[in-house]
Amino acid sequence: MTIAVSNVVVVGYGLIGPRHAHAVNNCPSTNLVGIVESYLTEEKRQAALAEFPGVKFFSSVEECLESGVKIEGAVVCTPNHTHYAISKLLLQNNVNVLVEKPISPNVEEARELKRVALRHGVKLLVGHHRRFNPYVMATKRHLHKCGQIVAVDAVWCLKKCEEYFEQAPWRRSKEQGGGVLNINLVHDLDLLQYFLGPLSEVYASPVEKTRDPSEDSVEEGAVILMTFANGTRGTFIVCDNVVSPANFEMGTGENPLIPQIEDSTDGVFYRFFGTQGSLSVPDLRLFHQKDLKQPSWWEKICKEHLDEDLSSIPFALQMEHFGNVIQGEEEPTCTADDGVMAMNAVNAVIESLDTQKPVKVLNA
């Protein structure tokens, strides 16, 4: 059977761009035809050429579109505040787009991108690639075993180094969509809504700043009370300036730049509490009393390890999906509406931090 192959460019070649380029290059249904980067150093160009011989380089999306190279898909992984303009230009030129999260720091811009994609008959996907993570897929498959989820406890805490901010100064800027809320928390709020349905209200309190006191400096974290539309309650602690193994990256090993912890029980970042059991992630321990007619605190709780194949690579699965979407074989797993729902949740957290009050989360 012949596999249809789509030509794809990667727009942005900073921290995450090379990983997307590898995913495009290694996917049987996509062909890496170009890299768009306005600030590409000669060293990075030569490194890319060594890995992707024959790939074309462009300094702008306009140059890429005018080059005559046939482009059917584009992965946009530029700084957050540029997502809207770049994605809109590509969509207007009938290019299917996979845009890194957040789809845009501005929700109205995100909704406009959805409208542009519909007008031009092309697909718009949001790169919440963790939906393709094997730990996430396993959680999604087994969460029903907990019965009705009453509460969830979530954590994302680690220590970002100064080099991380020096490499891309926009990461320090609220105005440019930087900070742990827009860059990191958005992932988890997408996943929690993927598991539990939409958030209806959040109430956030900031953690103490210890890094940069300037007015435009980004938040270092927050403690968040969450209410979901289905009645589930939860807490979330997020902070990027503490030494901790309790975060998605260290728990799952999904980012090759961040060492995975040896014992997954040391890095638990989600705990789901239900009427029939509790599930922790990433150790995938299910606590239950399924053999009892009436679960009770007077009876022993069973601990079961969910035996799952955790070897698949999220970026690879996401790219395979993107190729299938371009060919019309699948519908997007993470749509513009999903991206907007995640951003609405983040924006509600930011508003709650500003007002020091509970904030309702808008619908997509």
UniProtKB/TrEMBL annotation:
Membrane-spanning intervals of the chain: none
Pfam families: GFO_IDH_MocA, GFO_IDH_MocA_C
Gene: QTH1
Domain Gfo/Idh/MocA-like oxidoreductase N-terminal: 7-128
InterPro entries, alphabetized: Gfo/Idh/MocA-like_OxRdtase_C (IPR004104), Gfo/Idh/MocA-like_OxRdtase_N (IPR000683), Gfo/Idh/MocA_Oxidoreductases (IPR051450), NAD(P)-bd_dom_sf (IPR036291)
Name listed for the protein in its UniProt record: NAD(P)-binding protein
Gene Ontology MF annotations: nucleotide binding
Domain called Gfo/Idh/MocA-like oxidoreductase C-terminal: residue spans: 147-361
